[in-house]
Write a structure and sequence with these properties.
The protein is of the alpha+beta class and 442 residues long. The chain contains 11 helices and 8 strands. It has a 6-stranded antiparallel β-sheet, sandwiched between helices. A two-stranded antiparallel sheet has the order 7-8. A hairpin with a 3-residue loop joins strand 4 and strand 5. The longest helix is centred in the middle third of the chain and has 38 residues. The protein starts with 10 loop residues before the first helix and ends with a helix. The N terminus is likely disordered.
């Protein structure tokens, strides 16, 4: 006689649990293609209020409180950067046709990018719009454009259609930013059939900056910047030597068309670090909110207390957090083969932002000899996006950081962190991060 098993848990709860396990599996590979649901009630990406800095500028322009002066050559670019407190020295130039303004981009008319730790501005000579991306503390990256026509009240409009490219496996499945390195023809057309790389601080220099201009010195190390694919059948055979250690771009581009004459190598490296770090912050925030929403549905169905957290929910949050902590502490950073030096003005502007501990140390202190930073912990730990993570995620992050920095965790994952590194980062955070939990103070 066939036996029938009666499950005491409703089918819809089982479905929720299965979905939770699927998300855990998907998150195990953050470079995969799993896209988190933007329209879920716990996320509401397109409809929830945003508080990023561009939204504030947008409101000021609408009411006339903020006025921007138009320039015939650069449109609203320079006053917009000033209003957003983005240094001109952050300028980097990309000549591959890899944005929606591709028809206007070429090696002679490169797209300029300017950035701070939470806002990114793109501009192309003769372009119809300025492209803007801003990190909202809760929702992740929000995309905007600003018309380049002179107007009494210039407009900034939100552009969720940018998610067609900016919500993918390359952005960790959430609305985010990406730095791509591709093989490029002399026209600026990328040879996508040749492949390419999504780059961040884990990437060796040999894979970086295909389709980008790069100024600065990097010794014997070689990258893909400043050069073109000569042979379609063998696009990877680049003349890397001709693009190495470029002090100037004057023989490659009319630098007078831009606000700065450079595409700084250190700025490029900082940009790469930030993109994945911000995407991870968004991913952890969204993943935690989705996990807690699923848990609340289970609790209601089973009559459990509202604050009950099941093992699967904890695992979802812990798995997400572990990826963030690993990147936050530069556990997989690609070592530098040679010292790197860029323009002094970008390095000075970047390092001046602090905060500094009582010994004068900062997480923004650059090293650029064997690694990017002197103290291996991302300065984005001070960002509003970090502080706005759900408490369940923040508590776990702080606990894991404390275990690693005090030496309680000596696992192979963090073997590159010396005792001196751990001690310095711990001391800096104790002096400068005001929201540390009691576990740290004790």
């Amino acid at each position: 006689m066939k036996q029938t098993m009666i499950c005491p848990v409703p089918h819809r709860i089982l479905a929720t649990a299965v979905a939770a396990l699927a998300v855990v599996s998907a998150f195990a590979d953050l470079n995969g293609s799993y896209i988190l649901p933007q329209d879920h009630a716990a996320i509401a990406y397109s409809t929830a209020p945003v508080t990023d800095r561009v939204a504030a500028i947008q409101a000021q322009l609408r009411t006339g409180k903020l006025k921007l002066k138009y320039d015939d050559r650069h449109g609203y670019l320079e006053p917009l950067l000033k209003a957003l407190n983005i240094p001109i020295a952050s300028q980097v130039l990309v000549f591959s046709k890899t944005s929606f303004q591709a028809p206007r981009i070429s090696p002679r008319t490169a797209r300029a990018l300017y950035f701070s730790s939470d806002v990114y501005v793109g501009w192309v000579p003769g372009g119809d719009v300025v492209e803007i991306a801003a990190m909202d503390p809760r929702q992740g990256v929000i995309f905007y454009t600003m018309d380049q026509d002179a107007a009494a009240k210039p407009r900034i409009d939100r552009r969720d259609e940018c998610l067609q490219c900016h919500a993918s496996g390359g952005t960790l499945g959430v609305p985010g930013l990406i730095v791509r390195s591709v093989f490029v023809e002399r026209s600026g057309m990328p040879l996508f059939n040749a492949g390419g790389f999504v780059t961040d601080h884990r990437s060796p220099l040999a894979e970086r900056w295909g389709g980008w201009y790069v100024t600065g010195t990097h010794g014997a190390a070689r990258h893909m910047g400043n050069v073109f694919a000569q042979d379609r059948d063998h696009p990877d055979r680049l003349d890397r030597e001709s693009g190495a250690n470029a002090a100037s771009l004057k023989d490659r581009i009319d630098t007078a068309n831009y606000l700065a004459p450079s595409s700084d190598i250190v700025a490029l490296m900082v940009l790469e670090h930030q993109t994945r770090m911000l995407n991870l912050l968004t991913r952890v925030g969204w993943e935690t909110r989705l996990a807690l929403a699923d848990q609340q549905a289970i609790n209601r169905a089973l009559g459990e207390p509202a604050d009950t957290l099941g093992d699967s929910t904890r695992r979802r949050i812990d798995n997400a957090v572990e990826e963030l902590v690993k990147y936050l502490l530069f556990a997989e950073e690609a070592p530098l083969e040679s010292p790197i030096a860029g323009a002094a003005d970008f390095a000075a502007a970047f390092q001046s932002q602090g905060p500094r501990d009582r010994q004068g140390r900062s997480l923004r202190d650059l090293d650029m000899t064997t690694r990017m930073f002197r103290h291996p912990c991302s300065y984005l730990i001070y960002s509003e996006a970090f502080d706005s993570l759900p408490p369940a995620a923040l508590d776990r992050i702080y606990h894991r950081l404390h275990e690693i920095l005090t030496g309680a965790d000596r696992s192979a994952t963090y073997k590159r962190l010396t005792s001196a590194d751990r001690k310095a980062v711990l001391e800096i955070l104790l002096d400068t991060k005001r929201t540390l939990p009691a576990e740290w103070r004790n």
